[in-house]
Amino acid sequence: MYKVYGGIASRAFRVLWLLEELGQTYELIPSKPHDSAVIALNPSGKIPVLQDGTAALTDSTAILTYLADKHGGFTYSAGTIERARQDSLTHAVLDELDAVLWTAARHSFVLPEERRVPDVKDSLKWEFARNLDRLADRIEGPFLMGETMTIADIIATHCVNWAIGAKFPVENAAISDYAATMRDRPAFKRVREFQAA
């Protein structure tokens, strides 16, 4: 059985969502960054960490890629044009959405207070909105790549939800509709139930 170290309000949500979609059994070990159990598996102290037997895997995107490849779902086969397009979308979401949100988080509460530049957030909100519009143009529907849901959809939806929680405006109607459809998936709802518990 897989063990996932992290919390629902972190990128661990992505890993749990994919495990639910894949129908895999797992144990969630609620952990915060730099908890001793996390540092024992990941010296950087970052979450999530996926434990598969004696192996500890880090970075949510690497974990998603591993699980999707291992279980043959939510990904295209390596070496195909479709996989290259999927990877392109994944990296675009990481570069243009996730990185912007993470920069905002660092300047809100992660960095030492004397290193924060709160005024940068207005610029980041503008950049995020522009990048959402670009992503909306790439949606083939109902998923980013048409009829096949991939790990890029999990990361993109997580970023949209993160943005809403961080009070970043999500005004693009196509993105709002897309994210609402994704949040309606049973696997997504099962992970959200951890928050209510």
Overall description:
The protein is an alpha+beta fold and 197 residues long. The chain folds into 2 domains: 73 residues, Glutaredoxin, CATH 3.40.30.10; 105 residues, Glutathione S-transferase Yfyf (Class Pi), Chain A, domain 2, CATH 1.20.1050.10. It is 58% helix and 9% strand. The chain has a 4-stranded mixed sheet with strand order 2-1-3-4. It is globular and about 45 Å long. InterPro entries: Glutathione-S-Trfase_C-like (IPR010987), Glutathione-S-Trfase_C_sf (IPR036282), Glutathione_S-Trfase (IPR040079), Glutathione_S-Trfase_N (IPR004045), Thioredoxin-like_sf (IPR036249).
List the helices and strands and how they pair.
Layout (H helix, E strand, L loop, with lengths): L1 E5 L5 H11 L3 E5 L5 H6 L7 E4 L2 E4 L1 H12 L9 H30 L9 H19 L12 H15 L7 H11 L2 H11 L1
Parallel strand pairs: 1-2
Antiparallel strand pairs: 1-3, 3-4
* Share in β-strands: 5-15%
CATH architecture of the largest domain: Up-down Bundle
What's the level 1 CATH class of the largest domain?
Answer: Mainly Alpha
Helix and strand sequence: EHEHEEHHHHHH
Major beta-sheet overview: 4 strands, mixed
Pfam families: GST_N_3
Domain GST N-terminal: 1-75
GO molecular function: transferase activity
InterPro entries: Glutathione-S-Trfase_C-like, Glutathione-S-Trfase_C_sf, Glutathione_S-Trfase, Glutathione_S-Trfase_N, Thioredoxin-like_sf
